[in-house]
Amino acid sequence: MAWSSYQKLLALVMLVTGSFNTLSVKYADMQEVVGQDGSIRKFNHPFMQSAFMFIGEMLCLLIFLGDGTVDSHSLTKGSRNFNPLVLLIPACCDLISTSTMYVGLSMTQASSFQMLRGSVIVFTGILSVGFLERKLGGREWTGISLVIVGLLFVGVSDLTTTDKDSPGLNSVVTGDLLIICAQVVTAVQIVVEEKFVSGLEIPPLQAVGWEGVFGFIGIILLMIPLNYIHAGPPFGDNSQGTIEASLDALVQIENSGRLFMAVIGITVSIAFFNYVGLSVTQQMSSTTRMVLDHV
């Protein structure tokens, strides 16, 4: 079935914003800025980055509530008769997967991160068969097999291009494994959204907004103990030596215009990316969304 002009636009926006988000996160990771203790170090705050991502998602809810043409506008058209708690499970999955992926991204390369995220296609396909009762033909299984082969090449490439005597090798391998593990959780999120959310005809702008609210509350609660749990590098590479140091992150953002712009890029791009992603799930399917996500 041929795609409509609207579906093609969704696909294009998803490609651009997804790539821009990955580059913004990695660019922030690379910035060396004065922290709370006066020392210069890289911006190593994956959980704060997740918080900014959820702020971006919450902006979608503000736009939805501020739109005066609810019944006619394509961004806000849909049913409002639903319990927002139905979005709690996808939001929790988003919280876990995003935080894990951002930790992994801080330990490996942006190119490897984006390609390893392609493993979600495999997990989404398998879960779609089990929970959505979708039948995959030979073409789909062939595609999944090729994705697996491609992932093996990416993993081998990381091993062969990193100095085996360098302590950074363990960091790269750990980062790659964290990214792949996060894709299992992402696949659960996508399948749950298609099974329970798409059928309710919830406006995508509202759905993303509520997921942002639940996710932001969750990440704030999570960061409270993380600000007191001490850890060695790379996790504790901040002014406090803890897994997360929220004040240190805010000080670094204040001290660097480039870092501030990267954070703005993370916030804005993820809002558009998640909106069009959920729209693709509603308009087409979760599998299509995952393929577009990794083009």
UniProtKB/TrEMBL annotation:
Domain of life of the organism encoding this protein: Eukaryota
Lineage: Eukaryota, Metazoa, Ecdysozoa, Arthropoda, Hexapoda
Membrane topology summary: Multi-pass membrane protein
Signal peptide annotation: 1-18
Record key words, sorted: Membrane, Signal, Sugar transport, Transmembrane, Transmembrane helix, Transport
Subcellular location: Membrane
CC terms in the record's Gene Ontology section: Golgi membrane
GO MF entries: pyrimidine nucleotide-sugar transmembrane transporter activity
Natural source organism: Aphidius gifuensis
Pfam families reported for this sequence: Nuc_sug_transp
InterPro entries xrefs: EmrE-like, Nuc_sug_transpt
Family: Belongs to the nucleotide-sugar transporter family. SLC35A subfamily.
Protein name, per record: EamA domain-containing protein
Transmembrane segments: 48-70, 82-103, 115-132, 141-160, 172-192, 213-231, 259-280
UniProt key word Transmembrane: yes
